[in-house]
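Hi V.,

You were right to ask for the full record rather than a summary. Here it is.
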Amino acid sequence: MSIYTDYLVLGLGGMGSSALYHLARRGLKVLGIEQFGVAHDRGSSHGDTRIIRKAYFEHPNYIPLLQRAYELWRELEQESGKQLFNPCGLMVAGPPEGEVIQGVHLASRLYDVAVEKVSAAETAARFPGFQIPDGFEVTHEPEAGFLYVEECVRTHIECAERHGAQVSLNEKIQSVTVNDQMIEVKTEAQHIIASRLIVTAGAWSSACLQELNLPLEVVRKVLFWNPVQQPVYNLDQGKGGFFFDMPFGEFYGFPSLDGMTVKLAEHGGGELIVDPNHLNRELQATDVSAVARFIREVMPGLEPEPVRHATCMYTRTPDGHFIVDRHPQNQGVVYGAGFSGHGFKFASVIGEILADLAIEGRTAHPIEFLAANRFSDG
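Predicted structure:
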């Protein structure tokens, strides 16, 4: 027997939980399906914390979206009574002529984002525990910080349910059929006909939307928690996050939340994954080498060997930018995919955008640069 729903959301990680919430808060009948549990660690929206920042060096077109994302995270905090965002600030360091530092300054100029250039003399006093490489420029963004990632996902779902959303957990998708007449989804337990569909399936996006041949690749990424040798990175002492543009990679991390470890990772690289259902979650010797080198060269207050790790997946596009669009065969289907390891901070606004597209077929947010047709030939 078929179940009929007005709006269906597939995948309730960072983006899907937000889309579910934004549909439900508008009083719409919505069902969300998640193949794992709430705020699970099987995909890309886990690991305790995610950086959020406005001086977006990846592309200045993201900044209007970030400005709205900040507003929406604050609204969700107010509605739920939970702290989801910690504005601890972010230090960014790299060669002055590099894309990262240049991008930070461009964002600051174009959108009046608060960014402070920190002199070499000030750096040692303000950021103890870091050995800044010779010739690097250091900036500080006071409005940046981090999101409590699992709590953000959990809160979006809880608030969506309070607004009337239905949620099915631990239910795998067997097939998604989209044509100009119908939207049909079969799961292990249900056969669903939907008027509108939002696909936010992360590393499983290509499998859900096979007919689109989306230019996505999935890579395995490892997050590390390394022991502190001295309390120079502690959040309770006013320390913030960091991002370094090194000659051998880009590295980022967070203040120590527990006084015992610092979470950090390499942003680039990653082993290509053929099947996201079979991700190797064991720590490999090759996983540690780049981050250990970074620690030895830049963070002498940390032990180079981690005491904890977590494995997640980046779903990347060729240009590193997201895809947010409508299905060409059925405009009732919208999707967000390819968030390329830097998408979670946008989850609050991406959910709003996906809801706009599903309801109205358009959004007031400037997302033209995220359209799928940018990868078309010609």
